[in-house]
Design goal:
With 225 residues, the protein is an all-alpha fold. The chain has helices spanning 2-15, 31-49, 54-88, 90-100, 105-120, 125-141, 149-168, 175-183, 189-212, 214-224. The chain has a domain at 89-225. 78% of the residues lie in helices and 0% in strands. Helix 4 crosses helix 6 and helix 5 runs parallel beside helix 7.
Length: 225
Amino acid sequence: WPVVVIFGLVIGGIAADWNWVQPGIQALFTPTEGAAVGAVATGLYGVLTGGLSWRSFLDSVLSAANSSAMIFLIILGAAMFNSFLATTQAPQLLADWIHEQNLQPYVVLTIMLLFYLVFGCVMDSLSMILLTIPIFFPIIETLDFGLSPEDTAIWFGILALIVVEVGLITPPVGMNLFIINSMAKDIPMAKTYQGVFPFVMSDLIRVVILVVFPQITLWLVRVMF
């Protein structure tokens, strides 16, 4: 039951209508703040039940600090790269070139998604998203998918994230496959490929559905906001 309570606290604070508490309040906190609330609630539960010792707490803090430092270094590099792109106007030039080729919007989108699928196998997902979105998104903005600019941004962002994550489990070089196999060393790599194949296929079908019916991607957003 504690997991259900914490889940309800986080999701309820983000999505529930709190106008009955004070008019004008639609949510107690943002999704980012909700993650922090969930972490604090989980930590308190660990302390109260004795599952979180002082030593394990320090180890968790150090691990979080290492991960945060890595992420901020990636963000710093991406910011420098974005400055370079802004100076050279490379995304705009590439968008103009694609427009001159009269390529169909879905052809361009397919090429981008294939890029994410292939390079998602071998690159860190966060760094690839930060480095490629400044190039790809200006191109997507110039194409007509029958959506508003705001809806197109959400739709493409979700598609890019999904395809990158699919790349991480795509045989034979998806990085997560090697992580899984290292945790179960008695299982041959070929068996790991066979086990993950149905998940890859179902994910690819999901991507196709989201491309053909982009309104599915936006349904939950519209319901919540």
